[in-house]
């Protein structure tokens, strides 16, 4: 009997080889990641899709079993993150707490925010509140974790404890640490949105597509997180499969801009298209800014000694211009002072940068009426087209070429 018990502890019920256990661990942690990104994130927090009750309940059960996370708590904390992003009220911003703390203590920051009843009341609306949620998934959230430990040990013996440990660490490390930390600290940006979000990798596989974090912050209500041809969102692939078999309904995806023949008049439809495609417009702005800098550098070099006095100012402005072109906020007074020397060297560069703030006001002036915003856009385009600066003229032309936005967008 003792021999049989020791044999069980050594191999468990399945008696699998080490590589089989590794594959099992990777599979179950990936299901957990899929549950977080599809159910908690895209479905519950952002309402980007609706799931069939069977699928929704599977995800709820699996998350109870493998993480102990409560739907209302996770949803509320994440919604607050978007509402207070990069401020002192952001539950897990590296800009507030520092990258080290968010990376290593992301789970603790989550639990601290989730313990605040005011956060749950304000941001946790619309999440499941049925009998099983109140009495099991929320009321006994730790029971699932202990059940998972029992299952792992039953299947694999003493090695099951290691499998369980990996399962328990997977979300705190990848989601609470990597995405909340590195996803706001290091990576590349497709969109000039008003926060520090980045795409960690263009291939969203390991963390279910959440690696494309900048894309998500730009289009928070989109069920699809990839936007470039070279980006892959495995979470979106799963959603499309569920959709094809009738188990999911996609409510919204980011609308890709379509370019048509230029509009002869700047009207309300064009204003709506500009606001909808503002991130695409800011990408075009950044390209125009870089091109203007290169053109002005070439002009000053060609001028020889006549332009040498301003050449060094233009050279030193390059790194700052990169920040101005990619940072999601208005140009600060400090930045303007640092750029003053470059402005003295290039009137074109000054126009491109200073008119950026004015363009951003088109979608940031919430106190203005639609008629006032339209008049503002008309004036901006008229000045851009008459400026003689290619970058500004190209921006005005691109705005005129945006196709009308569908009423459902």
Give a written overview of the molecule.
- The protein is an all-alpha fold and 409 residues long.
- The chain folds into two domains: 249 residues, no CATH class; 134 residues, no CATH class.
- The protein is built from 20 helices and four strands.
- The strands form two sheets. A two-stranded antiparallel sheet has the order 1-4.
- Helix 11 links the parallel strand 2 and strand 3.
- Helix 9 packs across helix 10.
- The longest helix is centred in the N-terminal third of the chain and has 28 residues.
- The model has no long low-confidence stretch (mean pLDDT 87).
Put the structure in a nutshell:
The protein is mainly α and 409 residues long. The protein has helices at residues 2-11, 18-45, 53-66, 71-83, 94-97, 99-114, 117-123, 131-137, 141-156, 160-181, 213-218, 234-244, 268-276, 278-302, 305-316, 318-326, 333-345, 347-364, 370-385, 390-401; strands at residues 49-51, 203-204, 232-233, 248-250.
């Amino acid at each position: 009997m003792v021999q049989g018990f020791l044999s069980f502890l050594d191999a468990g019920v399945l008696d699998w080889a080490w590589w089989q256990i590794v594959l099992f661990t990777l599979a179950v942690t990936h299901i957990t990641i899929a549950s977080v990104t599809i159910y908690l994130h895209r479905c519950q927090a952002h309402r980007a899709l609706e799931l069939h009750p069977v699928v929704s309940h599977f995800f709820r059960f699996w998350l109870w079993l493998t993480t102990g996370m409560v739907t209302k708590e996770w949803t509320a904390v994440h919604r607050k993150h978007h509402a207070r992003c990069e401020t002192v009220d952001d539950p897990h911003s590296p800009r507030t707490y520092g990258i080290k703390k968010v990376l290593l203590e992301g789970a603790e920051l989550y639990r601290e925010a989730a313990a605040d009843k005011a956060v749950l009341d304000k941001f946790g609306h619309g999440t499941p509140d049925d009998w099983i949620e109140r009495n099991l998934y929320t009321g006994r959230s730790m029971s699932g974790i202990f059940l998972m430990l029992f299952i792992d040990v039953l299947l694999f013996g003493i090695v099951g404890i290691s499998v369980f440990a990996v399962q328990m660490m997977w979300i705190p490390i990848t989601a609470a640490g990597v995405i909340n930390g590195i996803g706001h600290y290091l990576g590349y940006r497709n969109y000039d949105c008003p926060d520090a979000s980045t795409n960690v990798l263009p291939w969203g596989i390991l963390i279910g597509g959440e690696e494309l974090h900048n894309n998500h912050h730009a289009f928070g209500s989109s069920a699809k997180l990839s936007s470039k041809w070279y980006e892959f969102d495995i979470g979106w692939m799963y959603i499309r499969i569920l959709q094809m078999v009738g188990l999911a309904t996609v409510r919204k995806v980011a609308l890709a801009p379509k370019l048509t023949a230029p509009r002869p008049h700047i009207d309300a439809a064009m204003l709506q298209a500009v606001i909808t495609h503002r991130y695409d417009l800011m990408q075009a702005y950044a390209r125009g800014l870089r091109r203007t800098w290169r053109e002005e550098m070439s002009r000053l070099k060609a001028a020889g000694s006549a332009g040498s006095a301003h050449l060094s100012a233009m050279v030193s402005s390059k790194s700052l211009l990169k920040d101005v072109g990619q940072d999601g906020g208005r140009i600060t007074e400090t930045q303007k002072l640092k750029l003053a020397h470059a402005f003295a060297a290039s009137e074109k560069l000054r126009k491109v940068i200073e008119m950026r703030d004015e363009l951003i006001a088109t979608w940031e002036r919430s106190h203005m009426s639609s008629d006032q915003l339209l008049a503002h856009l008309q004036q901006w385009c008229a000045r851009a087209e008459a400026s003689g600066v290619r970058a500004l003229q190209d921006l005005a032309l691109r705005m005129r070429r945006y196709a009308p936005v569908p009423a459902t967008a």
